[in-house]
Amino acid sequence: MSKVNSQTLAASQSRSFCTRALSNILRSAASTVLLLTATANATAQDKPVETGRDLVEDLHTAFGEHHARAVHAKGIILEGRFEPTRAARSLSRAPLFEHATPVIVRFSNFTGFPNIADNDPGANPRGMAIKFGSPAAPSLDIVTHNFDGFPTRTATEFGALLRAIGTSGPGVAAPTPLDGFLATHPDAKTFLTTQHPAPLSYATTAYFGVNAVTFTDRNGRARPVRYRFVPAAGEHYFGTGAGPAPDYLQPEIAKRFKDGPVRFDWYAQLSERGDLLDDPSIAWPSRRKLVKLGTITIAMLAANTAEADRALTFLPGRMPDGIAAADPMLATRTEAYPVSFGERQ
Ligand code: HEM
């Protein structure tokens, strides 16, 4: 789909991504027979392999092109420090586990809509991206979200899901392309329907790396792990009472330091035999051992000008010696992020 068409499509979509997705899921239950035809059509549209550039175009199909990040457009930047543990050094020889390091953290909402309301269900999952090292010479970037999973196993399937969302807006007869996709991809349906409620704060939800990486120690012993960041403040979400305001998350995190430090403990979840390294749609069992790699203490708000946000980008494939990608999705992500970065310059 051309950019002009995707812009037109996005402009015509007044309801949020998630609201549309959910209403389509509900409609799908009532249209099982027609669904089989739609499924065949959606499959026929699948591309054999998606490049990073294709995926950015797919994100625009779903959310429109706003000259911002193609996804997780609404965000806030903070600064802090990472203190490693001794246990981290025993798992990986990465130099960042040798000493304390400055970090830049960006919290964000899902979708490519730069003004998405914080209380819109489509703003889930929330994102946390971390850059370790000085801004001029970072050693590692990690980009996570607050759901232990992903809607699809591969990047190519993710592209098909985004195109299905983009072509299933209001006015599209059921069964929509999204109905068809969800009928054959139950993990995508789980992802769309089991997100957390809105968190009380960006600092009261846990974040997951989802894509496996391999840690290698000084003796050459390699071990696949997945990352998670656990908030020291505990996990707290809005319940069924009064809901959150449309724009509470950024002012909340900007003020939170006054009541004490904002901390996250960074853990490596150790894989065991049989855990899939190339399928982020499946969480590893919760009994897997967690090794604490260190603590991130967020100390202050960074300059949050439009220019600073435009100039900042994270590369999921930026890793030092001692850490390497295990999930091939990381390579595709590393192709896609600079495309989106280039478009907003
Ligand atoms: C094939 C899979 C994926 C693709 C194609 C993709 C694509 C993108 C793109 C193009 C951006 C904008 C980057 C920029 O403009 O600087 C982005 C940002 C982001 N993505 Fe992904 N992504 C994928 C998977 C994931 C996964 C698995 C997670 C979470 C575990 C994730 C979380 C985020 C977050 C939090 C941001 C915002 C980063 C920031 O604050 O700058 N993405 N993604």
Topology diagram in text:
Layout: H1 3-12, H2 17-29, H3 32-45, H4 52-63, E1 75-84, H5 86-91, E2 101-108, E3 127-134, E4 137-145, H6 155-166, H7 177-184, H8 186-193, E5 207-208, E6 213-216, E7 222-231, H9 249-255, E8 262-270, E9 290-301, H10 306-311, E10 323-325, H11 329-343
Antiparallel strand pairs: 1-2, 1-9, 2-3, 3-4, 5-7, 6-7, 6-10, 7-8, 8-9
Helix pairs in contact: 1-4, 2-7, 3-7, 4-6, 4-11, 6-7, 7-8
The structure holds protoporphyrin IX containing FE.
Describe this structure in words.
It contains eleven helices and ten strands. With 345 residues, the chain is an alpha+beta fold. It has one domain: Catalase core domain (Catalase HpII,  Chain A, domain 1, Beta Barrel). Strands 1, 2, 3, 4, 5, 6, 7, 8, 9 and 10 form a ten-stranded antiparallel sheet that branches. The protein is globular and about 60 Å long. It starts with a helix and ends with a helix. The N terminus is likely disordered. The protein binds protoporphyrin IX containing FE. The site of protoporphyrin IX containing FE has 31 residues, from helix 4, strand 2, strand 3, strand 4 and helix 6.
Radius of gyration: 20 Å
CATH architecture: Beta Barrel
Supply the number of helical segments.
11
Order of helices and strands: HHHHEHEEEHHHEEEHEEHEH
Question: How many structural domains in the coordinates?
Answer: 1
Write down how many β-strands occur, each being a DSSP E stretch of 2 or more residues. 10
- The percent range for helix content is 25-40%
CATH fold topology: Catalase HpII,  Chain A, domain 1
**Can you tell me the residue ranges where pLDDT is under 50 for at least 5 consecutive residues?**
1-44
| CATH-level-4 superfamily name | Catalase core domain
Strand content: 15-25%
